[in-house]
Amino acid sequence: xxxxxxxxxxxxxxxxxxxxxxxxxxxxxxxxxxxxxxxxxxxxxxxxxxxxxxxxxxxxxxxxxxxxxxxxxxxxxxxxxxxxxxxxxxxxxxxxxxxxxxxxxxxxxxxxxxxxxxxxxxxxxxxxxxxxxxxxxxxxxxxxxxxxxxxxxxxxxxxxxxxxxxxxxxxxxxxxxxxxxxxxxxxxxxxxxxxxxxxxxxxxxxxxxxxxxxxxxxxxxxxxxxxxxxxxxxxxxxxxxxxxxxxxxxxxxxxxxxxxxxxxxxxxxxxxxxxxxxxxxxxxxxxxxxxxxxxxxxxxxxxxxxxxxxxxxxxxxxxxxxxxxxxxxxxxxxxxxxxxxxxxxxxxxxxxxxxxxxxxxxxxxxxxxxxxxxxxxxxxxxxxxxxxxxxxxxxxxxxxxxxxxxxxxxx
Amino acid sequence: xxxxxxxxxxxxxxxxxxxxxxxxxxxxxxxxxxxxxxxxxxxxxxxxxxxxxxxxxxxxxxxxxxxxxxxxxxxxxxxxxxxxxxxxxxxxxxxxxxxxxxxxxxxxxxxxx
Lengths: 411, 113
Known about the structure:
The complex is a heterodimer of chains A (411) and B (113).
Chain A: H1 2-26, H2 29-50, H3 56-74, H4 82-87, H5 107-114, H6 121-131, H7 137-143, H8 148-164, H9 177-193, H10 209-222, H11 227-241, H12 266-280, H13 287-299, H14 301-304, H15 309-322, H16 326-340, H17 342-355, H18 363-375, H19 379-392, H20 396-410
Chain B: E1 2-9, H1 11-15, H2 17-33, E2 37-42, E3 50-55, E4 58-63, E5 72-80, H3 84-93, E6 101-106
Antiparallel strand pairs in B: 1-5, 1-6, 2-5, 3-4
């Protein structure tokens, strides 16, 4: 099963490269995907009997290009592309040479196309997963919790807009690059968290975490001048490294501070640390680098056996200055509790809620409040807060964990 | 590729038009000098609008614009630029962009005769 998954991920690398190459020459992602789909079908039909060509990617490209040319002859809207397609890579012959051609990697342009500001932000991650990795609309729909037909329709419409509105298949200029890169990274992050929201860990099987890590790796490789791309990769790898420690043998939830570092994947942590170090060379911190640094400090517990709380607080302050969020503020107060005690943290938690009414429905706010009240010995108030935190939790394992916490120490 | 830059204006924007004319004149000139101007018109204010429907062969005439919303179509530019990025760049320079909103729509290309 793992081997099949690996093969599948490898095939996805080819898919995106070929779609990008074809899109660069016909300006129509949907047409490029269709042509490539035909080419894959032809390969399934012919390779078993005729043997796998020496340069399989080039073979697919030649067939797909021919399909596009056939279609352009029939379809007047594509007709003006004929000269360009005819001229593209004239010497391609996958059968005669060992290394028929080096297919230029134009996937970065494809990533920027999918995260173009003229595309609905909610569709940017799904579009990326489909065009860069070749996932089906059904698979994407399951991860984003919408009906397959709905997702299919939205993707078709987004691709029609790319073609008809003339969204260019180019790399953004230096001036637009920071904002455009941020959009690409945000979409990849959204892909990573897909299927988690509302389903907790159980949603992971439906989520697209591995695919998102693949996109993050790709992005970090293709955007070497953007430290945030490495920061995002580092963050995702740190999260992936803890996959085996987040649940006890009986399936119950284990919070980060109680996880056994021996269960963390040290290989993934090493990769995550290497990415973050490389990012830091640029000297331009950003949201994802800071979030990765926070995870890196937690990961260091595997070596030191302790958590460096003052450093953690500093990182949260920096993160909140750069990218304020309710979740970040609550996490910062949890760190503060370790340094300044639960009373001080409770006071800050109150102040936070007074400034932001929406926190009344923020599950982590209630969970932290319950925990802190319990630590100060206010059992009654803690019970009430636990009830709210449990009611707002959407992961059954987290609910069970909080119930046990509430019951375990109040008796 | 041709794009329509549709200008949506509030009642206040319509009232403020005389003061905005120099900005629109400068914008038109910049478009023309860059070789992107393909046309455009300003419309009179929405109170001059009449909406017509033909239903079952019968003409229904109604006072007012369609749709009747807070912001109304006040005019448009037709611009000729290479792609949407260029169109958005020019749309952002339109004086209406910082007051109200402009919508960018590609023009449907008719088969060349």
